[in-house]
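TL;DR need structure tokens for one chain.
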Amino acid sequence: MGHLAWADAFVITADSVSMLSEACSTGKPVYVIGAELCTWKFADFQKRLLERGVVRPFTGMEKLQMTDSWSYPPLNDTAEAASQVIRALAQRGWTIRTRWFP
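>> reply
TL;DR here they are.
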């Protein structure tokens, strides 16, 4: 995470969901290389990030425009993912214990 804090922008290959997710958690510009070569699973992820304004395709012209910065609310979907898991478990009659001590 320290390396992410030092960067002004990121250029990430499209085949790594984890690297993209980490870069997108910063709110800093993220350029994606090779999205057009991705399989459907990665392509859908790229499309959603692009629609949210979190990433932009890397075209090679960015070197000239790196001073043009944009920002977005940093991605942090952990709380939403946890809520979905809790709802899915509740539909099955399960509950998650949030306090371990009486």
